[in-house]
Amino acid sequence: MVKTHLEPSATRYLAALPDADRAAYLTANPWITWSGGRASFDWGDFLTHVGARKKNVPPFDTFTLAAPENNLFGVATTKARHFTQWSLRKATGDDGARLDADLPEKIDLMNPMYFIERQNPGRSRH
After folding, report:
1. Residue 1 in 3-state DSSP?
2. At 90, is the secondary structure helix, strand, or coil?
3. Are 70 and 61 in contact (CB under 8 A)?
4. How many CA atoms lie within 13 A of 60 on its CB side?
5. 42-75 burial string, b = 16+ CB within 10 Å, else e?
6. Dihedral in degrees, nearest 10, Cα atoms 100, 72, 85, 102
7. Rounded to 5 degrees, what are φ and ψ at 22?
8. pLDDT (tens digit, 9 = 90+) per residue, 10-69?
9. 20 Cβ partners below 8 Å, 6+ apart?
10. Which whole number is the average pLDDT over 87-112?
11. Are 85 and 98 in contact (CB under 8 A)?
12. Integer Cα distance of 44 and 31 in angstroms
């Protein structure tokens, strides 16, 4: 990610700046090294710059069912449920665990792409 996307983008940005502006930018961002007309930095310094993650992995279907998204799929007798096979299996340790039968339809109802791809002549064009 750093070598393929971030450093080339930073290099293009910094190369386009006048020398004085580039120097000011690099002074304000000492985690970026400018050498030979190229920007370089490491992933750890970049993460420190942009800030800590807001959610852990997995971000939405958490193993502990503590995410608000898990509550979205709860039912009258169960406050929160897993809605991805992967999180369900990792959380339970059961490689054969299956999602509740009603979840695929509920997941479709939460996803606007499900409705966009369906043929519906009465749907608004915009």
Report:
1. coil
2. helix
3. yes
4. 7
5. eeeebeeeeeeeeeeebeebbbebebebbeebee
6. 20
7. -60, -45
8. 999 999 999 999 999 999 999 999 999 999 999 999 999 998 878 888 889 999 999 999
9. none
10. 93
11. yes
12. 10
Which amino acid type is present at position 97? A
DSSP per-residue codes, 3-65: IIIIHHHHHHHHHHS-HHHHHHHHHH-TTSEEETTEEE--HHHHHHHH---SS-SSSSS-TTS
φ, ψ for residue 113 (rounded to 5)? -65, -30
And the tokens for 120? Answer: 């519906």
75, 81 Cβ separation under 8 angstroms: yes
Q: What is the pTM of this model?
A: 0.55
Residues 6+ away with beta carbon under 8 Å from 111: none
In residues, how long is the chain?
Answer: 126
